Amino acid sequence: MMQDSNAILLLSCPDRKGLVARLSNFIFQNNGNIVHADQYTSKQGKYFFMRIEWELGGFALSREEIPVVFAPLARQYEMRWELHFTDYVPRVAIFVSRHLHCLHDLILRRHMGELDASVEAVISNHEDARELVEQFGMKFFHFPVTPDNKDSQEDRQLVLLKELKVDLVVLARYMQILSGKFIGQYVNRIINIHHSFLPAFAGSNPYQQAYNRGVKIIGATAHFATEQLDEGPIIAQDVIKISHRDTIADIQTKSKDLERIVLARALRLRLEDKILVHGAKTVVFE
Amino acid sequence: MMQDSNAILLLSCPDRKGLVARLSNFIFQNNGNIVHADQYTSKQGKYFFMRIEWELGGFALSREEIPVVFAPLARQYEMRWELHFTDYVPRVAIFVSRHLHCLHDLILRRHMGELDASVEAVISNHEDARELVEQFGMKFFHFPVTPDNKDSQEDRQLVLLKELKVDLVVLARYMQILSGKFIGQYVNRIINIHHSFLPAFAGSNPYQQAYNRGVKIIGATAHFATEQLDEGPIIAQDVIKISHRDTIADIQTKSKDLERIVLARALRLRLEDKILVHGAKTVVFE
Amino acid sequence: MMQDSNAILLLSCPDRKGLVARLSNFIFQNNGNIVHADQYTSKQGKYFFMRIEWELGGFALSREEIPVVFAPLARQYEMRWELHFTDYVPRVAIFVSRHLHCLHDLILRRHMGELDASVEAVISNHEDARELVEQFGMKFFHFPVTPDNKDSQEDRQLVLLKELKVDLVVLARYMQILSGKFIGQYVNRIINIHHSFLPAFAGSNPYQQAYNRGVKIIGATAHFATEQLDEGPIIAQDVIKISHRDTIADIQTKSKDLERIVLARALRLRLEDKILVHGAKTVVFE
Amino acid sequence: MMQDSNAILLLSCPDRKGLVARLSNFIFQNNGNIVHADQYTSKQGKYFFMRIEWELGGFALSREEIPVVFAPLARQYEMRWELHFTDYVPRVAIFVSRHLHCLHDLILRRHMGELDASVEAVISNHEDARELVEQFGMKFFHFPVTPDNKDSQEDRQLVLLKELKVDLVVLARYMQILSGKFIGQYVNRIINIHHSFLPAFAGSNPYQQAYNRGVKIIGATAHFATEQLDEGPIIAQDVIKISHRDTIADIQTKSKDLERIVLARALRLRLEDKILVHGAKTVVFE
Q1: Listed residue (C57, C113, C112, C109) closest to C85, CA to CA
Q2: Considering only CB atoms, which chain C residues are within 8 Å of D27?
Q3: How buried is residue B235: exposed, middle or buried, by Cβ count under 10 Å (0-12/13-18/19+)?
Q4: Strand bridging mode A168-171 / A91-96
């Protein structure tokens, strides 16, 4: 239904005078109606970021023509850019190990129509999630990982992701470290949830670290995966208060609620094409 | 210093195709450089809101010419609009009664350079604030109010505000109800702080109301004053957790911190020309 | 396993000198080890509240003897009191209509071992929840409600609750108003989730009310059900920020996350016997 | 006014059966009325913490007798303990450098009667604060610090603190590192505010660190000063959301509000004798 769908341009480039005018004219002169336009210029470095969403109904260019016509303009301004259509349903693979709360939450949201994505696969190094996943009619793939087979299993996972035409990988508490090779094939397309308020308590066992340090607030962080573990661009964070009365088990229980909400929020922002990555940071048009 | 200042257009109108392009072209064709552009279209009612800020340095139109040249465009689209310049320092009058925490906070922020406003007068129906106000070199005006002299005192206050060319009135816990006549002369230019999470606990003694109801969270609300008390468009709100252990005195202490922060945030948003009022609600471009 | 379980006394009475000593001596002289003791004395009204938890292992009195021996002491101080054992798993019935997010969340938490309760029945006036409920091996009961059969259906529900020996009723977005008769049989044993920050936006359609009023923060409230709708003692509340950009659908999505968390928190507090009701308010020993 | 004052015992010791009974009996048998009793037993390490507050009016022991009579009981249970009286007004010295927002806030709270402390001195390595401090009738001491005179200036500061009988030192954004010698004389009596969510962004320039890392939430931490900078026991923390739009200046402005509130909260907790330090962590009886 062409008339109900929108196109979205996500772009960034060095700041130049007239950029907003140039871009909005591109839409207007092709008879498009802008429904959202968010723009941001970093003061340091003078870099320009924009997200424009316009109605495809009545637009003078077909979906195939838009990138062709836009490309020269983009080259002129040295833009990095992406074009999306709101009626495309992204294909997602969820990686999980033994902590299933985030997976369960994503399944629930999918079930209730809150996440506009198609879960093509749930992939795990353990069997724990199989029953739940299959109960909801999704495909489960078990890739047991040992130090010896880690590389070959990753290769098999990559083949599977290609076969399933996966757009986006969600690490929903996946306890294996992905190789640079794997990450390199899905740059800014792997969302990880870390169960601490990064950069505090990076690495393993953040619940125990938080308990030992005696912090009064704990957090969770969703970020794009990069080779440097826990250092990828942050998409979303949230926190909750704790006290001396909270045991590690209490911290875990409270954190799980955070992790679910923060991961779901980050995923939704990505599915709505509201995130631009710039260096080690994100621009999020909420 | 023309070259360091920016112009800001705040406008709203019925949504029409090409509005963003039309407006950004107006700036671009006059050789302006847009530094911020925020735009929002309400889905209900299809109304368009925009805030554009551009550099005056190098702009083809003088400050006086801008409104003249812009007016026809505004008429064509049935816009309500305001034009501001970032180097103008708004003139503010603060009204206060006996609770001085908000006043004290505003003085502190002013003193530390956090509020870009000129406090022309502090006006009160009590003498409590005089010493503090005069200590910081500001003018204090005492208008004692009785049921009999309320109208005449308001008239005198209005005369004073005109004399001092006050742009903005801040009710920093002012315990008198302003008349429709007064408010009518400063529509969307009177910011009030109410010590509850409106619309909960409107009216008098919200601390006591919150205590009696046994809520677990209390709040504060900054809003534009309207004739219907506590029903004006909300600018900012914030909350803090309480428990059964909190006495009314504890609630008051916690609330005061909220009130200070929420009022300061609302005032800053207004001073930065980031608020548009539409019906009973605000659009805040943060 | 007697040795791993604890006893919990929840009590309230007019404040008297020596109460803490008297109560801790009762435990100590019977060779009990106190693991938690929370106490609170209201300044208004001078009322005393306490929660004591002690190990049953080595305690001189059997479970049956404790209330017998404690009763005279309780009478002397005019106490209202409850005795609980931590190894008893409360039997819960969940009522739901067509919004299933809270139900789904409770099922998830039950599944992950986060809620120490036995869900004996899910009761609904619609069929929507049946598939999900039965998928997780729980019993679903459909009680369609019309103005004509409302009373008789409630009577049948009450019979069912008795048969199933239900201790606690959770209204997880149940859209029928329960009669005074029903509530009277489960005083302080029915937890309702209201999708607003009460007392703001009581009644129907709080999302729409919040949208219309233009609030900048929305909330959710878990409370004990009373005959006066939405006026029962509040157990837990939480909030989230919104902006003018949030449509009613966005408000609903954000609110659902709140509702799930707030209801789960309230239920957990109740299952851990940490709530005392006093008049229209709660004392929550977190 | 003996009859209006309370005594407070803060104590910790290895957990033993009957501790609560033993302690509450101590009060009761001397005809005391307990107005607050908070207790906590750590599950790891089985350590017991308690805060008891009782009315001195009618109590059988004089202020001088209480520690004498209590000492044998404390020895028996290997307690660390402190005895406080609510009518004693602690004597505080505030250290500050050039950022005056926390100092200003403490002065304001003192002025409004929110902080029950006597500010005996404001000490700074700069002159910036003098005018403000003297304006409010407090004593200002300037100790310029260079690498050469650092030790001798600290010695002079210590002499001054002794002379003024200071109980508590508040580092309200003091940019000098105190020596182990200084800290050793005020163990758990120096409260520092760090302008980040520790342990994230310890060390210098946390605003810049937060900006560079692209976090979505910033925080502030009040803690007791220890030799290991920024590693002392945490008393209070709070956070606020930021976005990519926030410049370092914006982060600073938002953080300052946090710092003021978190420091004031930590100080109030200390003045109300609600903090116990245990190892690297605090037990806070709120």
Answers
A1: C57
A2: 20-21
A3: buried
A4: parallel
Alpha-carbon distance D182 to nearest alpha carbon in chain C (angstroms): 38
CA-derived radius of gyration, chain C: 21
C230 is catalytic: yes
**Contacting A residues, span 31-70, partner chain D, CB-CB under 8 Å:** 40, 42-44
CB < 8 Å to D40, chain A: 244-245
Q: Are the CB atoms for C250 and C206 separated by under 8 Å?
A: no
Per DSSP, B170 falls in state E
Chain B: nearest CA to A28, how far in angstroms? 5
Yes or no, beta carbons of D112 and B135 under 8 Å apart: no
Do B21 and A28 make contact, defined as CB atoms within 8 angstroms? yes
**Token pair listed for B161:** 């505000």
Structure tokens at A225: 């995966």
Please list the rounded mean pLDDT of every run of 10 residues in chain A (286 residues).
79 93 92 90 88 94 97 97 97 97 93 92 97 94 95 97 98 95 96 96 93 96 93 96 94 95 97 96 94
CA dihedral (C26, C32, C33, C36) positive or negative: negative
Catalytic residue (choose from B155, B230, B250, B257):
B230
Q: What is the Cα gyration radius of chain A?
A: 21
Token pair listed for C183: 């509530």
Report the gap between the CA of A30 and the closest CA in chain D (Å).
31
pTM: predicted TM-score of the whole model, two decimal places: 0.94
Calpha distance A230→A194 (Å, rounded): 7
> What is the C-alpha separation between A112 and A214, in angstroms, rounded?
38
D-chain CB neighbours of C241 within 8 Å are 241
Residue C257 corresponds to which tokens in the numbers above?
């996350």
CA of C34 vs chain D CAs: smallest distance (Å):
7
In angstroms, the CA C140 to CA C131 distance is: 9
Pull the structure tokens for residue A92.
Answer: 């997602």
Question: B178, B153 in Cβ contact below 8 A?
Answer: no
* Contact call for D243 and A284, based on CB within 8 A: yes
- Which chains pack against B, by 3+ Cβ pairs within 8 A? A, C, D
10-residue mean pLDDT series, chain C (286 residues): 79 93 92 90 88 94 97 97 97 97 93 92 97 94 95 97 98 95 96 96 93 96 93 96 94 95 97 96 94
What does chain C come to in residues? 286
Q: Which of C38, C128, C155, C230 is catalytic?
A: C230
Q: What would the 3-class secondary structure string for chain A be?
A: CHHHCEEEEEEEEECCCCHHHHHHHHHHHCCCCEEEEEEEECCCCCEEEEEEEEECCCCCCCCCHHHHHHHHHHHHCCCEEEEEECCCCCEEEEEECCCCHHHHHHHHHHHCCCCCCEEEEEEECCCCCHHHHHHCCCCEEECCCCCCCHHHHHHHHHHHHHHCCCCEEEECCCCCCCCHHHHHHCCCCEEEEECCCCCCCCCCCHHHHHHHHCCCEEEEEEEECCCCCCCCCEEEEEEEECCCCCCHHHHHHHHHHHHHHHHHHHHHHHHCCCEEEECCEEEECC
Close Cβ partners of B212 (under 8 Å, ≥ 6 residues apart): C280
Q: D286: which chain B residues are within 8 Å (Cβ-Cβ)? A: 245
Residue in chain D closest to A283 (alpha carbons) equals: D244
Pair of tokens at residue D281: 């962590």
User: Is B21 close to A25, i.e. CB distance below 8 A?
Assistant: yes
Q: What are the pLDDT digits (tens) for A117-135? A: 999 999 999 999 999 999 8
Please report residues of C whose CB lies closer than 8 A to that of A104. 108, 111-112
Domains plus CATH for chain B?
Answer: 2-85 (3.30.70.260), 91-284 (3.40.50.170)
How many residue contacts between A and D have a Cβ separation below 8 Å?
Answer: 83
Cα–Cα dist C20/C49, whole Å: 10
